[in-house]
Amino acid sequence: MVNIIPPENATDAQIVKAAKYHQEQFQVIDMLCGRICPELRGKNEYLDILGFNYYHNNQLIKEEERFLCWKLNMCDSRWVPLHQLLINAYEKYMRPIVLTETSHPREDRALWIKHITDESVKVLEAGMPLWGICWYPIVDRPDWDHLHEWHQSGLWDGAYQNNQFYNRVLHSPLAEALIESQNLLKYYVKT
Predict the structure, then answer these.
(1) 12 torsion bin: left (phi>0), alpha (psi -120 to 50), beta (else)
(2) For the segment 96-111, what is each residue's pLDDT rounded down to a tens digit?
(3) What is the pTM of this model?
């Protein structure tokens, strides 16, 4: 799930270009349900659940390759809250949603999960079917392209020395925030 916007004081061409980039995130879904590329024989019934990955850097000014800050007291006025992005996707496809990946590196992990929880509550209170949230990675991992760089974005960090794994260390602020989030969200679970 992304929000791609044009630069401030954008030209008409920049506005159109940003809107095109923003809509491209839905191409695979549109193919699957037959809205585009009819030669692929997509059908609406092939679409059962919408899965979106969402990270702190998923809202950006494309032409500048600059990410919008997600912290509420520092937000760009063009930031679109996650709950609104998810509600828009639900209204477009009318399918349940799963937040399939989310996390934040280092010290803002606990703050990020609280943010995701607050946004999820707004989705649920709007009556939208949000079926789950996946924190990824649950155990810290190296960067895909630079194996010597670890993200420190899991519930457990690895303790490493000389490229040797020694143990896992619980990131207590995230663990506490996760428990708070689970306790809050369980009131919205329909059994």
Answers:
(1) alpha
(2) 999 999 999 989 999 9
(3) 0.90
